[in-house]
């Protein structure tokens, strides 16, 4: 779930791609130009903010930095091409699935990553985020950290406290309670209980399934065995249908779900942390439009609460699919970014840059897009919450007029840290990560939603899901 893409982004991406060969760094032994940094944060405003951080690094170290905006798909292709020619960037900010894939292909220098991580102290990083960028060898079981975690976002539940009270509903703490609350709101108020991505066969439906299913204790794969047909997953499918059926307006995609909550047409919303600035009327492109918002533009921010972690059912694991997860550990859908260093890059300068942007320059780095870049390094050994606290004090949204702490309070800042600590994706840190990625990108599970909606037994639906996932697994 990402922010809307402004038209200027395409021009920036095309320019970056066209200049790619010039922007790549030379092999380390021939390095004479600036350090080259690829980033997916590619809007003009975000590029300018990252260039400001790079300028601070240059002033501190004397090392010049060339910031190259490059979308994830372009990064994948360009890194393979650059690796073949020996011309690679020095540092890449990329998603967890990307860096683990690159490591599996032998494209990264993980020794320098481990050096930077050791200097910064692994204990100061989000444990799940480290797991997301860890590659486990299928034969030896040996684990390698592919990149240094930086930041990310997490799914949360925004809820109208006034509407839940009117419906006589307590704030839910589990997926089962969430479904019951959504149903009660619809019955009592004739209003959508919860808006979330439920459209069959779409990316929105795929995201909604993984988010709800894993929070309900469902695993896609466990120790290499497809597990989506388990009793926990069948129950999750039933709860997903109940959540979907709480809508009075049919199925939503991500954008229409957000619009429903902003218009006051839904009592709850499953969305990413990107909703924070929009609820507070800090994004002119996506203003609150509820009836009360005309007189009070901050009405939704003042009357919304947030659930950042849903408790799993007792007796289930975290959904990390490793087979060794702690019992009843929460698992929230989200996305994380990390700093990777390609093989043959200028390792020493790359290490210095990573240590800077995750240390002295960390707060300014997070401020590039505060509501979507929550810290995965929450603090230092001396001050364990230093960077989380700093994040809470940063301006957020396009207007950058107020901080999260000012608008929502310090309690939400702490809760956001708890949500990020629970971020987990199916397959992460295991040999099954590739399969999980294929299931997500191909929309395998979302294509089975229509039968579920027509009344097919959830257990039968998840058995069919398992058959489709198994077919993918056999084709790998």
Automatic annotation (TrEMBL):
Keywords for the protein's UniProt record, in alphabetical order: Signal, Sugar transport, Transport
A Pfam family this chain is assigned to: SBP_bac_8
UniProt xrefs under InterPro entries: Bact_solute-bd_prot1 (IPR050490), SBP (IPR006059)
SUPFAM superfamilies from the UniProt entry: Periplasmic binding protein-like II
Signal sequence, renumbered to the chain: 1-22
Family statement drawn from the similarity comment of this UniProt entry: Belongs to the bacterial solute-binding protein 1 family.
Protein name per Swiss-Prot or TrEMBL: Multiple sugar transport system substrate-binding protein
């Amino acid at each position: 779930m990402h922010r809307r893409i402004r038209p200027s982004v395409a021009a920036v991406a095309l320019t970056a791609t066209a200049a790619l060969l010039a922007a790549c760094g030379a092999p380390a032994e021939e390095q004479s130009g600036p350090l080259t940094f690829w980033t997916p944060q590619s809007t003009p405003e975000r590029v300018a903010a990252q260039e400001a951080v790079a300028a601070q690094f240059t002033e501190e170290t004397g090392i010049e930095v060339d910031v190259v905006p490059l979308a994830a798909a372009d990064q994948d292709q360009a890194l393979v091409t650059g690796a073949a020619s020996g011309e690679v960037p020095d540092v890449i900010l990329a998603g967890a699935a990307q860096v683990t894939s690159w490591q599996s292909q032998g494209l990264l220098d993980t020794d320098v990553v481990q050096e930077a991580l050791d200097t910064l102290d692994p204990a100061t990083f989000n444990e799940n985020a480290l797991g997301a960028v860890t590659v486990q060898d299928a034969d030896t079981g040996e684990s390698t950290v592919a990149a240094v975690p930086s930041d990310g976002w997490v799914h949360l539940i925004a809820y109208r406290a006034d509407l839940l009270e009117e419906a006589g509903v307590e704030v839910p703490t589990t997926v089962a309670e969430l479904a019951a609350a959504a149903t009660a709101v619809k019955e009592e108020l004739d209003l959508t209980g919860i808006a979330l991505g439920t459209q069959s066969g779409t990316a929105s439906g795929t995201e909604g399934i993984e988010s709800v299913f894993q929070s309900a204790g469902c695993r896609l794969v466990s120790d290499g065995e497809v597990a989506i047909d388990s009793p926990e997953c069948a129950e999750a499918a039933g709860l997903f249908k109940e959540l979907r059926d709480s809508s009075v307006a049919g199925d939503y995609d991500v954008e229409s779900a957000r619009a429903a909550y902003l218009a006051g047409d839904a009592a709850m919303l499953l969305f990413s942390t990107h909703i924070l600035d929009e609820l507070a009327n800090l994004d002119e492109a996506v203003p609150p439009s509820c009836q009360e918002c005309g007189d009070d533009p901050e009405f939704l921010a003042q009357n919304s609460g947030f659930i950042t972690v849903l408790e799993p059912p007792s007796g289930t694991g975290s959904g990390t699919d490793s087979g060794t997860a702690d019992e009843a550990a929460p698992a929230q859908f989200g996305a994380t970014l990390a700093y990777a260093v390609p093989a043959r890059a200028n390792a020493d300068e790359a290490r210095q840059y990573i240590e800077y942007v995750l240390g002295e320059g960390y707060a300014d780095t997070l401020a590039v897009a505060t509501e979507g870049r929550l810290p995965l390094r929450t603090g230092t050994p001396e001050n364990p919450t230093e960077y989380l606290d700093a994040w809470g004090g940063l301006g957020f949204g396009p207007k950058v007029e107020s901080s999260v702490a000012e608008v929502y309070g310090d309690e939400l800042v702490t809760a956001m840290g708890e949500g990020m600590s629970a971020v987990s994706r199916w397959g992460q840190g295991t040999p099954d990560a590739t399969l999980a990625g294929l299931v997500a990108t191909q929309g395998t599970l979302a294509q089975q939603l229509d039968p579920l909606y027509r009344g097919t037994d959830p257990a039968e639906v998840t058995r069919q899901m398992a058959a489709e996932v198994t077919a993918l697994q056999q084709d790998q």
